[in-house]
């Protein structure tokens, strides 16, 4: 849970974002508007050839549904980037809170890119194996 939700339940008082230390940690702030997260998102969008700024969570989902619906390779790669970026930002936030460490944005971007490439290669190998009847569905 983000800090704003934890405060609502009475678990925390300080709701400052752990990644930028400047704004209240909400879902939209943590994943999209935080200077750290926004830098990561902007790079990931540019990597996919998408020339726009990160949006709020609901808008991001609506946009993804409009432009990346279906099972095409492009759609699947975008979904991997979306899920990977959310996952890595959440992990980075938890590492900062619980371990006191935070990697530079460039390191996080590199990790996401490598992870997406790796998963894409696994999916590509699976699809090729299905074509040759080597791997069941």
UniProtKB/TrEMBL annotation:
Q: Which domain of life is it from?
A: Eukaryota
User: The Reverse transcriptase zinc-binding domain covers which part of the protein?
Assistant: 2-41
InterPro entries assigned to the protein according to its UniProt record, in alphabetical order: RVT-Znf
One short Pfam name that applies is zf-RVT
Write down what this protein is called.
Uncharacterized protein LOC104226055
Species source reads Nicotiana sylvestris
Identify the gene encoding this protein. Answer: LOC104226055
């Amino acid at each position: 849970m983000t800090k704003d939700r934890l405060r609502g339940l009475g678990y925390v008082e300080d709701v400052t974002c752990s990644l930028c230390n400047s704004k209240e940690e909400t879902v939209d702030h943590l994943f999209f508007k935080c200077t750290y997260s926004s830098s990561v998102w902007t790079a990931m969008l540019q990597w996919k050839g998408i020339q726009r700024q990160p949006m709020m969570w609901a808008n991001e989902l609506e946009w993804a549904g409009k432009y990346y619906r279906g099972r095409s390779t492009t759609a699947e790669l975008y979904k991997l980037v979306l899920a990977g970026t959310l996952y890595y930002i959440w992990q980075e936030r938890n590492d900062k809170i619980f371990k006191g460490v935070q990697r530079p944005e460039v390191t996080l971007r590199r990790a996401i890119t490598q992870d997406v490439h790796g998963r894409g290669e696994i999916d590509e190998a699976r699809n090729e194996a299905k074509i040759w009847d080597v791997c069941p569905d």
